[in-house]
Amino acid sequence: MTNQMITAQGLTKTFRSKGQAVEAVRPLDLAVAEGELVAFLGPNGAGKSTTLRMLTTLLPPSAGEATVAGCDIRSDAAGVRRRIGYVGQGNSAGHTQRVRDELLAQGAFYGLGRRETRVRADELIESLELGQVAGRTVQALSGGQKRRLDIALGLIHRPALLFLDEPSTGLDPHSRANLWEHIVDLRRATGTTIFLTTHYLDEADQLAERVMVMDHGAVIADDTATALKSSLAGDRVTLSFATATDAAVAAARIGGEVEPGDARTVAVVERDGSRALPRWIRELGDVDLEVVGATHRQPTLDDVFLALTGRSLREEAAHAQPAEAEGADAHSATVAA
Amino acid sequence: MSTIDATARPTGFVRDTAAVFVRESRPLVRDPFSVVFSLVQPLVFLGLFGPLLIGASGGDVAGTLQWFVPGILVMVALFGTASTGANLLFEMQTGSHERTLVAPLSRSALLVGRALKEVVPLVIQGTIVVLVAVPFGFRVDVPGLVAGLAVLAVFGIGFGALSYALALACRNRDWMFWMVHQTLLFPLMILSGMLLPLEDGPEWMQVAAAINPLSYLVDAERALLGGDFADPSVFGGVIAAAATCAIGVIVGVRSMRRAR
Predict the structure, then answer these.
(1) CA–CA separation, B122 and A95 (whole Å)
(2) Per the record, which residues fall in region Disordered (chain A) (predicted)?
(3) pLDDT tens-digit series, residues B25-77
């Protein structure tokens, strides 16, 4: 039997804010096996980071149980800390520190010997492409370099389980792609179990084998990205016609809907669109309805989120405040407590 | 279900403290000039306030320096350590402090290692101030200077720890840190007799000075740098420094233990 890396039963976090109880994480059950790469996907404020902060011993849960790497997060926080790597949302290296120095300090924090730390630091500098900047102070690094350093710091003690909180937030597309490559390489080379949170659909899609969708403090779906897409969303097919009348008749025949913005186009959501499309064209041709154009699109995780919540994650991300509402809440709540 | 092997090794308070101390000291070793930079303020007082003091008192240059330089040393210790919490404040706002909270480090070590680091710049800066004053006629007793710096170091650890505790309490409110910092620092400085003698001040000021640990420290430094180990003020200064250190470390460790 494979080891369970993370288990949780009824893990809950309630913050008190202005006399009102806010349920940041509703009773949550989790099981992540050794070697899995899991993404926690959801909008800002969904409770992803709060869950992560509980699992990494940064925040005590209000209720429930959890074990991480076999250690109880309440009674053996020290055991958890010795077994996990954690890369938080912010940049975790000191601004006035030099890159290599910070890795050496991190090695000492994890009780590695001096020589071992030096070897490990140089290994990470090489594998995360930090060689050019190893002697520079952290404040001189680019966003992508800082983020790679954060990951190097999280890996100094070769943890079997790595937590990544919003790993690519704030990076340009090139640096993001580069970071993903590093994460995938790391996983291939070491088999590290990775648990990450993200509000980027493409990040979850590209990186994770398993996606847990979180919204309003609860996990509302948990499966592989492919399975989620095929079971919840289905392909999106559109058919265009010469007239609005043709479109209306066709919509009734094949069970689609006329597009609100374009009366001559019919949209259908179908499990397997690529097979259905030629069949529909044939059927409609039999009753003299000529299809003049057609599109077929695979579902995205955004379609999944839309199907689950009625809201689009992509639009929420565009409207979201850049400030981390979730983190700020967590802070003010602990002050009040 | 079995436990995954730990990949970090168990450490203890001493090793953790050493690791934190080494991390905090590295930027200083890499860029020693940063120590000199924070000397600007005390040197300005020495160079611009000193001559005024000499003129106003009507005393000779060497005699006035003998009175004034020990006060400047206390100023170095006070201002240097009071703002050190700002570094932690900044690291709390990035993810740096959080990273150390997830690491298997003792919380007390996170505070004590940082506070101990304060000793290094303090001793270097104090020595530079004395060296600058010597050509102008300041006579220094070397064993007295060593003892004086040691007392200041003990005070600095405590005051630095209090600055960290303030940073932990302020979290993301920088303005609050600097407001408390400014509100406390100047009254503490003036009511210590560091710059001007308080004997000529009104009675309430003398009462305030009597409860200000810094005034005991200033008197002790004046005696020590003159080589007068037997002066009763030395005892008072040692007690004031030790008390600041004890209170600072206790308050600081308590704040760090509660840190999230």
Answers:
(1) 22
(2) 317-337
(3) 999 999 888 888 878 888 888 888 888 888 888 888 888 899 999 999 999 99
If 0-12 CB within 10 Å is exposed, 13-18 middle and 19+ buried, where does residue A158 land?
middle
Does B133 reside within a domain?
yes
Q: In sequence order, what are the beta bridge partners of A38?
A: A195, A210
A121 near A109, Cβ under 8 Å? no
Q: In B, residues 63-92, which contact A (CB 8 Å cutoff)?
A: 90-91
Comparing CB atoms, the residue among B1, B171, B260 nearest residue A4 is: B1
pLDDT tens, residue by residue, B114-135? 999 999 999 999 999 999 999 9
Cα dihedral sign for A93, A99, A105, A111?
positive
Interchain pair A92, B93: CB under 8 A: no
| Structure-model confidence comparison of residues A33 and A235, the more confident one | A33
Mutate to test the interface with A, among B84, B93, B260 (most CBs of A within 10 A): B260
The CATH code belonging to domain A4-230+315-336 is 3.40.50.300
Residue A322, pLDDT > 50, answer no
CATH 3.30.70.100 fits A235-295, yes or no: yes
Residues of B in contact with A120 (CB under 8 A): none
**What pTM, to 2 d.p., does this model score?**
0.86
β-sheet bridge partners, residue A224: A210
ipTM: 0.89
Put simply, the chain B residues between 1 and 40 with a CB less than 8 A from any chain A CB are: 1-11, 15-16, 18-20, 22-23, 26-27, 30-31
